[in-house]
Structure formats: structure tokens, C-alpha cells
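[SOLVED] Need 3D model of a two-part complex

Original post:
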Amino acid sequence: MKKFKLSGDIFIPITVVGLAIFGIVAVYSASNYVAEIDYNNKFYYAIKQSMGLFVGLAIMLFTANIDYRKFFGKGIYLYFGGIILLILCFIPFISVEVYGAKRWINLGFFTIQPSEIAKFCYIFFVAEYFATDPSRARSFKGVIIPILTGVLVCLLIVTEPNMSITVCVGLLMLSMLFLAGMRVKHFLMILLPAIALIPVLIVIEPYRLKRLSAFLNPWENPKGEGYQLLQSLYGLGSGGLFGVGLFNSRQKYRFLPFSESDFILSVIGEETGFFGTLLLFLAMGFLIYRGIRTAKGCDNFYGYLLSMGITTIYAIQVLINALVVTGSIPPTGLPLPLISAGNTSIMVFMGAFGTLYNISKNQEEPILHNKPKNKPKKINKIFKKFAYNN
Amino acid sequence: MKNTYSLTVLRKRLFAYFCLLAVLILVIIIRLFFVEVVNSNTLQQKAIDQWTRELPVKAKRGNILSSDGKILATSADSFAVFVRTRSVKDSQKVSQILGELFGVDSQSLQQKIDKKATSEITVKRQVTKNEIIKLTDYNLDGVYYSVDNKRVYPYDEMLCSVLGYTTVDGLGQGGLEKYYNKYLAGIDGEILYEADLLGSDLSSKTPTFIPSVNGLDVVLTIDYEIQLIVESALNKVMHEYTPKGAAAVVLNPQNGQILAMANLPSYDLNNVPRDDIESLNSLSRNGLVVDSYEPGSTFKMVTALANIEESLNGNLNAKPLNYVYNSSRYRQVAGGKIKCWSDHKNGKHQNQTLQEALNNSCNPCFTDIALSLGTETFYKYIKSLNFGKVTGVDFLGEASGMLIPETAVKEGDLARIGFGQSVAVTPLQLAAAASACINGGLYYTPKLVKEIKTSDGKVVEIMKPSTAKRVASKKASQILAEYLENVVTNGSGKQCYIEGYKVGGKTGTAQKFVDGKIAQGKYVMSFVGFFPSNAPKYLCLVTVDEPIGGNYGSTVAAPVVYDIFTNVISAKSIAKQ
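Solution:
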């Protein structure tokens, strides 16, 4: 009789749910004052976020129990599904325009942010593409399709416009190509033009130049361009070592815009201090570590790339958000995944982490764990062993 | 096989990727440490500044008192009423009630509140306590009040050019109000309200109250009674001769304390003409301290003192006290002719001694003295009596007069300085110097403030009495005082004679200069008087600017000093000698 054993890396769902619950507390604290005034209900954002958490939990339970190998072969549908959602953003009556950006679509009872979904669709597609024939990564011809499909996603998102998610998808693409084994020579061939593109992107939108100068010297215009960054730093700085105590933020009284979404880390820093943010980063870092560990323990290439894709997009968003909030890179609006207010984000990330957990459950013969004692195995041969291509 | 590769590549890449993420997370944690801990203080300080809204609590400005305890300037408790637009719930009700209570236009107030263009509107300042009590009964949202101060001068015009005035915000703007502002002002307090970005109060936080520290009281050397006497005497002369102005200063020659100081015309301190800067500037000007004029004959006291002292010291250049001066009306000096104001006919100004020269105020005699003493000796006295520099009185903007530099003095200048021309002095300079001439030869810096006290009467600081500086021997000074008593008894100062009181004095009539030329018919009449001459307690200098009718100091200014002295005698019940 098989002994009962909790299979998989149970730390992944525990950490995810823990972070999401902490997120609700943080969202409540950061938003209760504004919610009371704007919606006459100080729990407005907290309730909305809780709904996201519950739906997200359901999705996570669901994805955790679907064998991820069943997605294999459906990558192309997922990808085009994502592309269609992105295109819907540009269709009047369906799209919702906020601050001149068409980032949301209205489903009647619910608004969703297609870019949050499309980036995961792209992960499934690329993982399947390379898993079908890992040798594709080694030839230039082989990497053209992931690049072109990635660029298409980027183009659609940047037209919304949503620069920050575009950057995230771009970095995700580069990371996956690198992790799939793309030749360094080819890698540099696409990396260098991408870097050269940055100044161009800055110059075509004048507001980015302003943001850049505000980043370099926020005190020059503390009431204008430098405002958001300075307010974020005021919040963090007011925290000190131990913070002013949960719910005691003063910056949330309208001083810090987007305090419940993109800049929630600043409020957390103000209320819980350096130790609070340190603990938070240890938890988020732990989740990233478990994701990489899962990838390393995979017995097939598809699982390896899929788990790295999910881990990577999470890591990229955490890092960029934290760098923005601490004033280390020019400000750009990007939510802190699992923590910031935003329903689509929390649901999609929880669903993705459900899949990551599922990958961690199905690991029999890790391909990367230890150096093979015998002669190096050729990946083509190993790949043949996997039978999930129904 | 070109397109296959070993798993080692993937293993290495995964490891590199892991390291990259780990380093980035470490960088963020370090960065968080810097922002949250290392830069915490500066950032938090800036943040705190924006979290609170301050309502000022004005410190009560200190009183200004006369030496005999009369309150010359005080602050009435008053309040300022504010509306914080963001905190108003019912703008119609608020503006209607405020309109009724304070007589402001409620419609325009409501518009201002609704517009919310400014977060704070000052409804009315200098509101009384009773009105505030009525206001608090309504308990209106968004309406606040704070202590404000209204400056009140109980005697309206009295001492106006000396006291000066404050801004509407109670900051010293002129006169003693400005000079002693740091004592009078006190330290303002604050009520700190915690507010959000838009200025709405946070009901969950209690405001912090930082109390104000009241200002200190300044006690003047001014004697209320004498000031009153001086101002009424000047008013009389203003009425009688309609001059451009009249001014007087009364000093205590024994210590330099200023007992009275007045410049007419004056203005009501409770109704400062702030809208008319030009007239405010001219009315509030303390000409006794900040303006210079050519003293004329009153300066002969200085020349006489120099001669007496030098002659007592055996200086052969000095004229002996019994020396008889040349009777001619003219003196030929450096190619120019200096003449006496009198025609010297019919036995006038003949064979005079110094006593008689003073009695007659005969110019040629003093020319003789100045030329005979020489620049070096004469300037020694002029300089030690502080001519050509400020006296150091505690008042802003003191003028130093004009004295030709010693090295540039020509014979003609020296001859004229002997009888008070080619030199400009402030009236206060002259009064302080005259005091030294007759008080036994000691120079005291004039002072307006005696001490600084707290509002409950505790003395905080006693202004250091000025140290005496010897300018002549006691004997020389006593001789001069006797001579000047004689001027009043028998000479040109007769109109100041008071029987039974040893009054001494010297007249002065100075021509006015307009654009560097003598202005015909324009004079400044002056008289320096003091009593009792053997131990002077009061010295008074009166100047009358361009009187109409009455051409000599003896006819215009001396009676004013007489008026002042007789009233001081009766007010202070000074017995006859």
C-alpha cells in the first residue's frame, strides 16, 4: 500500500496564499481613507481584492489539479486567445479607457486586463514550442518564431499604451530564450538592438523624458514630475526600522497616489518599516527560489520552461516594482503581483502558481538535478522518453 | 550533431539566472535599507511638514510703558476667524452665520468657500472675545479661530514719532516698536492639525497645541507727565506761529535719559495712515534723531566751553575770561567778511567779555575764539562731544550730522563753526552735547529705554546706563552754566526766566539751506534751556521750523521752554531755591 504523502512543493501554494492574504490587509490599510471618501465604504478596495483572492483560489485549486502536460499541444490556441483579448482592448464599447490608456475590457460584470493574461499565454506557447524540439533553441531559424510572437504581444501592449507591461514581456521573452538554451551569439544579436531601442522609445513619447529627468532629480520639481517618486520615498523613509505600525500610514491620506496599487510597497514600508519589507522580500524571494527549484526538478523540457516562465514573470514584476518604488529606476506603473490591488492580476497569478504547483507534483526523474555520472545525455534522446503528447 | 547540446548548458544558465535574481533582490534590500533607515530622518522630516496644517497662535506683544508706569502701547486680545474650505459641510449656513456675526458679505464668502480655490480663507481679523463666544455657540464645521493681536495706543498721538507702529500682523515696523521688536514680539505658537493632501482634517487625530510665549514689556525713560507737558507746549507754538514743524527733547543731564521727545505735527497711532506712504513717512519721522540742521547760536555753548577750559588750563591761545573782544561788527577772514547779526550801532555789542558775548549772542567774538584756539584744539572738544557721529541712542536710523573733516577745515570754516554755521547736527546730538557742557563736563549717551520686564513685572534686563565720558573740567562747566544762567537773567534768553529757579539757556537762529544756498527768510528757531543751573536736572531743546512771524530763537523757542519748565515745576512740585 502506498503511504500517504503530500506530493509536490506545498510551500508554493502556502507562500502564494500567505502573500495574497497579506496583500488584502495592505490594500485595506492603503485605501481605507480614500475608499471612505470616494465610495463611502472604507472596505471598498479590500472587498474587491478579496473577491479576486477567492476567485483566484478557485482557479489555483483547479489548475493545481490539472496535469500541466495536458496543456501541451494547446499552446497555439492559448497564444491566439491572448492576442484576441489584446485586440479587444482597441474595440470601442468593449474597451475601457482610463487616463487615455486602453488597458481593460469590460465583460459586463467584470473588467479584465488582457495584458495580464496574454503574458501567460505567451509562456505556454514558447514552452511548448521549444519542448516540441529543444534543438530549435540552438539555431537562428529556430528562435525566430518565439521572437516574432513575443514582439507581436509587445507591440499590442505598447499601443494601449502600457510601457511597463511591455518591458516585462520583453524581459520575459529574453529570459525564456536564454533559459531555453539559445546561443549566446544569437542572444546578443537580439539583445543589442533591443537596448538600442530604449532611447528611441524614450524620445518618441516626450512624457518619458520628463519622467527620466524627474527621476534623476526629483527635488527640482517636487510638486510636478518629481511628486510621485518623492511621496513614495517619504513613505518608505517615514517607516524607519520598524515602521509606524500597521494601518498607521500618513502617506495614504491622499499624499501618495496609487498607494493601494502600484505604490503599495511604499505604504507597507511606512507601516512595517525596514524589517517588514525585508520579511516581505524574503517571502517573495523564497517563492522565486521554489519556482526555480521546481524547474530544476522537472523531468521534461516543457515543465522546465513552463515553470521558469511563470517564475520569471513574477520575479520581473516584483523587481521592477520594487526598483520603481525605491526610486532606483525611472517611475513606471506596475503592480506588485499578489499584493497590489488588481483583480485580473491576482487571479491570473494564482492560477499560474497553481500550474507551477502541479509541475512540482509530477517530477519523477529530474533532468537537471545532478551531473550525469555517465556520458552527457543528449537532450533529444531524453525528450523522446516523455509521453504526454497524447 | 549541430543542433543538440549537453544539459550542462541549461544547468549553467539556470544557475546564472538564479544568481542574477538573487543579486537583484539583494540590491533592492540594500536600497530599501538606505531609503528606510539611513535617509529616514531627512525624508520623514519632509513628510511631516506636509502632513500638518498650522493655525498660528499669535504671541501677545509686550507693552511699552513710560518710566512712571503708564501704558503707552499695548495689545488687546483679539482673534482671527478662518474658514477651511475643505472641512465645510454646509457652505450656505456657514457663510450666512459668519456674514451676520462679522458683517462680511455672505454671498461672496459662500462663493469663495464653494470654489475651494484656497484651502483657507481669513474671514475677519481682530475679532473680539465676545464675538468668538457667540461664534462657538454655532459649532460650525470648518470654521476656526486663533489668537490674533491688535495693537492699541491708549494715548493716541502721544509720543508717536518715538513709539513707531507695527504691521497689521503685529511686527514692529518703525520707531521703538521696531528697534525693540525682539523683546516685544514674543514667540508665536501653533495649532497643528493633521490633514490630508487637500487640507481636510483627519477626525481620528487630535490637534497638537504649541503655546505661544508672550512678549516682554519695554519700560521707557520717558516721563509721561513731562511728555504731556512738552506736547501741549509744542501744540501751542504750532498754533501761534504755524511753523512747518516743532520739536522738543527733554533730557536728564545727569544720566542722558530722555524724559520727553516730541515731533509735531503728529498722527494717531491707532489710525496709522498706511495707505498714504508719503505722509506716513513724514509724520512718523523722528526728526530729533534722524534729521540734521545747522544749529546756529546754540552751538556757541561748545565754543565757550572750549575757551573756558583751555584758558583755565593755561593755554595762551585761549582768551582769558576777562578778555574784552573787539567791538567791530565785522571780521575779515580768509578774504571773506563775517558780520554780526546785530548792527553794533548805538552802543550795542561794545567792549564785551565772554559773558556779554553770550548774552548778546555776538558772532565775531566766537569767530575770534575759534580762530585763536585753532582747528586742533577746537576739534578736540567738538569731537569729544560726539558731533559728526551718532550718539548711539537706542533708535533706528540715527543721523550723524555733518562735520567738515579736521584735515579739510579752512580758516573760513573754522571761523563759522565758532558760532554754529558750516556744521550740521541732529537736535538730539546738540541736546546731549549741551548736557555735557553744563552738567559738570560729563558726556552721557542718550537713552530711551530703562528696562525690560516680563508681563508680570519681573525685570529681565536693565539697560546699562551709559558710562560718563569727561569732556571738560567740572569748574569750566560750572562757569559756563553760570554764564548761561546770566543769559536768561539778563541776556537774549530773558523770555525763559522763571523767578526763583536758576534757569540757564542759549538761543539759536539758524538760516535754512535749500539746494546748498541760504534760503532767505527761512529759519530754524531753537532754544536750549536747563535748570537748576548749579545742578541741572532738566535740559530742554526746542526747535521750531520756519515759524511765521518772530524772527529770533529768543522770541519763538524760548517761551516754549519757559512754558515747559514752569509746568514741569508745578507737576513735579519743585521748590524754589
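Edit: Chain A touches chain B through 57 residues (CB under 8 Å).
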